[in-house]
Amino acid sequence: MSEEDKTRIVRPLDQLQRPATPEPSDTDPTRKIDREDSPDSRTIRPIRAAEEGKTVLFRPSPNRPAEVASSGTPETRTEDAISDPVVGWLVVVRGPGRGNAVRLGYGWNSIGRDSSQRACLNFGDPQISRLSHAKLLYEPRSRKFSLTLGEGTNPTYVRGDVLLAPTEIKSGDRIQMGETELLFVALCGENFEWQDNG
Amino acid sequence: MKPETDFAGRQVAGSRESQDDYYGFCPLNAETDGLYGLLLVLADGMGGYAGGSLASRVVVEAFVENFCFCQGSIPERLLSSLRASERRLIEEIARQDKSLSRMGSTLVGAVWTPGALQWVSVGDSGLYLYRDRTLTRLNADHSLAPILEAQAARGEITAEEAAHHPDRHALLSAIAAEPLEIYELRDLPFELKTGDIVLAATDGLASLTPDVLTMKIELNAGETADRIAEALLIAVNEARKAKQDNATVAVIRNPTTQPER
Questions:
Q1: In CATH, what number is assigned to the domain containing residue B239?
Q2: Domain A84-191: CATH architecture, name and number where available
Q3: Could you tell me which chain A residue has the CA closest to the CA of B1?
Q4: Which helix (H) or strand (E) holds B118?
Q5: B261 located within any domain
Q6: Residue B14 neighbours by CB under 8 Å, 6+ apart
Q7: What is the pLDDT of residues A58-103, one digit of tens each?
Q8: How many domains does chain B have?
Q9: Interface residue A117 vs chain B (CB under 8 A)
Q10: B-contacting residues of A 20-39, CB under 8 Å?
Q11: Mind listing the pLDDT tens digit for each residue in A7-52?
């Protein structure tokens, strides 16, 4: 261990206010990082940790209301329907919760039992992971849906095959997780897309 | 300029010629970075392809740089920085020799703020929590290992087969030329308790069994972060594994009392 004996601090150089070229004897393994704009050319909004309490999901419409996370009912709400329009549904056709449906929105939809999940399947199937059993993506440019492995222990099956790599799914496909079988129903796709109607 | 939270990182090359792991800490302050805390980024360049050490360095530096200057909530900044790492790596691939076209890296980007942790992660590098004498993995493992374990749990293969499967360490996801499709974002702050120890490590640390790892941390739990990191790497060296992979450990000790601000 030589350089490894020292904890490495990496900072954008202009923030560190160090000379542009560190002296050769400088053993500090800080790396130079080039930047074009200086930090004071932009206003950075201070953020306090206390403000970070609510769920923020990365997706085209970042207007997910905090209420969804606390209410636990993934029902369509009129207020957010405009900013977060429905693109499809997962319908429970077998297992606990048969007859229910959860709505899917633009971008990533993490599927899990926890009420924080965008596609919350809290109908009493304990084999579905709380968080991110699988993730369903609707990508508006290609107008395609795909399903990606989540972080749960139990596997997900698409059209009867175990889900390993991200897999494109089409309307009518069956997805199975735990005791639950889901029928995927697409709204958006070739024939319809919210962006088409202005 | 001693930070109020105690952190340290250490690396060993193991039996490999190059060090393909890279990591960096970046103390964040409210004035310049928009929040008070500590950013830790750790990456393990894929040793199976040329350019692993370049890939891990590039993604860490791009992540830190982007994080310091981008705006938004912590999860937004983590994701934006992950994307910046990906872009920078692709730029680097374009600039470099063709032999490096498959280079890639795992990445764990974690932000510590007083009492909480949030992260984004791709690949199999681990983020762990030591609390109440128990070590828990916090982030997802995007290698085939969890899938094999699940198959073993269902009785489809034996535990032995799962443990020695040739593709066990293959990554389902990494930052590379291919589009990044699987990543984990911890968007809700993970609450830390006083005295918690957070650990990020590349898979070289897997030479230690979970029990040994837990015991080593327990023995050093009262020590400083750099003592904990050193103790773990000494244990890796002592394990004398014939093909020891690069190992990197980064440790953050959540203060026993909440720092001011």
A1: 3.60.40.10
A2: Sandwich (2.60)
A3: A16
A4: strand B116-122
A5: no
A6: B204, B236, B241, B243, B244, B245, B246, B247
A7: 222 233 333 333 333 333 344 445 667 899 999 999 988 888 899 9
A8: 1
A9: no
A10: 31, 33, 35, 37, 39
A11: 788 877 544 443 333 333 333 332 323 333 333 322 222 222 222 2
A11, A57, A149 member nearest B182 (Cβ)? A149
Chain B contact present for A15, CB below 8 A: yes
Q: Cβ contact (<8 Å) for B9 and A8?
A: yes
CB-CB under 8 Å, A166 with B57:
no
pLDDT in tens, B210-247: 899 999 999 999 899 999 999 999 999 888 787 888 89
* Residue B50: inside a domain: yes
Inform me whether the C-beta atom of residue B113 falls under 8 Å from chain A C-beta atoms.
Answer: yes
Domain span including residue B242: 6-253
Measured CA distances, B184 to A64, A85, A148, B88, B125 (Å) = 19, 24, 12, 20, 12
Q: Which of A33, A52, A155 sits opposite B150 (nearest CB)?
A: A155
A19 touches chain B (CB under 8 A): no
Instruction: pLDDT band for A197, please (50, 70, 90 cuts).
Output: low
- State the burial class of residue A115 (Cβ atoms within 10 Å of its Cβ: 0-12, 13-18, 19+): middle
